[in-house]
Known about the structure:
By secondary structure, the protein is mostly beta strands. 0% of the residues lie in helices and 52% in strands. The chain is globular and about 40 Å long.
Amino acid sequence: QVQLVESGGGLVQAGGSLRLSCAASGRTSSNYVMGWFRQAPGKEREFVAAIGRSGLLKNYADSVKGRFTISRDNAKNTVSLQMNSLKPEDTAVYYCAARASIALSTGNYDYWGQGTQVTVSS
């Protein structure tokens, strides 16, 4: 079992940056593939980025490639999402998730945080 708590959301103007963090407790986060997802009002939750257990493998949704960077610090049991060049369409609740697997995936995650709101104004 692992517990996930996101932080770092907020209100930012278009073109700005935010850094989201996810703190994991319980079992060591290095045993898990970690991911970020988001859900905008009236839309289904969608995959944003994932990172492998060692931090070497990463995967991004096409909509955020080149703007967002996922990273992890296994010593601190944290995962981060650096978001640059933010657009109004990035507005959503962002969720951290953990997957008990060695394979990156855009779905089938086992544990979820409560989410943090990101609002990008135009």
